[in-house]
Amino acid sequence: MSAELDELYQSIILDHNRRPRNFRVMDNASVHADGVNPLCGDQFTVWLQLDGEQISDVSFQGSGCAISKASASLMTAAIKGKTKAEAEQLFEKFHGVVTGKHPEGAESLGSMKALGGVSRFPLRVKCASLAWHAMRAALGQDGTPPAPVSTE
Amino acid sequence: MSVGSAGFGDLRPDFPLLAASPGLVYLDSAATSQKPRSVLDAICAYYETANANPHRGAYKLSGAATDAYHGARATIARFLGAADPDTLIFTRGTTESMNLLATAWGRSHVHRGDRIVVTRLEHHANFVPWQQLARAVGAEFRICELDEAGQLDIDQLRALVTANTKVVAFGHVSNALGTINDVRTIVKIAHAVGAVAFCDGAQGAPHLRVGFDALDVDAYAFSGHKMLGPMGIGGVIVRRKLLEAMPPYQYGGDMIEFVFDGDSTYNTLPHKFEAGTPNVEGAVGLAAAVKYLDAVGMDVVRTHEMELSRYALARLREIEGLVVQGPATAEQRSGVVSFTLGDIHPHDLSTMLDVDGVCVRAGHHCAQPLMRALKVTSTVRASFYVYNTTADIDALAASLRKAKDRFGAHVG
Question: Is B205 exposed, middle or buried (0-12, 13-18, 19+ CB in 10 A)?
Fold first, then answer.
């Protein structure tokens, strides 16, 4: 049974939880949004600096479980330098992998494929998606005005 | 040791879900309890032998349904120590009970400038209805804090309950920490200024002998599903003179006497507060549940849970970095142990325990104001009931140690 846990809590996840990347407030951000999960108290803010269509910098801060924090950290590393459209494509691929609907997308996710183990734990999909939803809200790509988004 | 220690054997075989899952370690009874076979059988038997709409028909079967429903009310009232069963109003559970009180009693008795007092320990269901009542009518809303030992600060409560206080709403037992409040003392403080004292007994009725009449409390609310009964049934016992002075909570069938074009008159107690077709299956199931608890004996239940808590506190405190929230001793708490482990997030812990078959609650336990005061965003909560044994606690401790090794938790 603990093979499932080995897959969920891979060393890269534990590392990003312990030493999150891009974990800082961004003073000169173009946009930002909060992601909250009221059920467990997880709360992150994601900041993005935009250069036209390109995400030139991204950072986050807040608190949450290992899955939500590591996922936020990995996300920032993955979307820095990407265009908004590329970030959205990455989100769709990521979402297909963590929900288990399109596991084949994992190979092109780079280090984020470590989050594939989440698909075995449906209750934790919202943790893995929290920062992504905040990022999309900040970019206005989730169809809502930039405001706190909730995964509950 | 895997046998109940308080004078009864392992009750697990009485609970079909537990009996069918030998590896399951169910430690979330404060959220909802498992159900014994006798409760499931009673619900089936009701539908197989007595189902009709009570109070409505002149035929015998409707009479059988009416008898089943009110017979259940009498059984549950007796179990909770209320001599007058017609003052037990069935609701969906404690949440609806507290909303009934805050709406039907509150809107007619609390006015601008009055004061409402609750405590820091409250579940949202006994916090938000009063907070919103205060906002709606312009009353003061005051919160009694905890002392350094994690108990309700009774001196502060005395100071807060001023002459303009109309209601003190408090929990019998904290769902988040297990803290047992001294109901009689709180009632005396409320009554000294002419306020009513309403008790949220969601975590009290399943675990402690209640004795409604002896407690002198003005209302006591409970949830059936936390005390071996089905979901969707619970109630509130209210002193008769308060019920008679309150307007109805909901309007509809069954609760009226005469309906004219311009106005209506209302039925007698308890019907005045039970609009619509009642939850007979729920009442019958809950009556079977309290019969089961009576057969075990509530004093025995209490002793068993205290011994489990004492054992759990000792075993968990052996784990370096584990911090138990709430009262220090098993005597001061019900069968609830809420804790954090190093810097491991409670949701990660809960997932890791789940893989070992250990079911615990992780989160804020619907008590955000309390969590904020304790300066934690969430905790892990293990809660015990009649079917738990020390073996369940051993499994919890072993799983926690594995989780700690996996995460290499920072415990400093």
Answer: buried
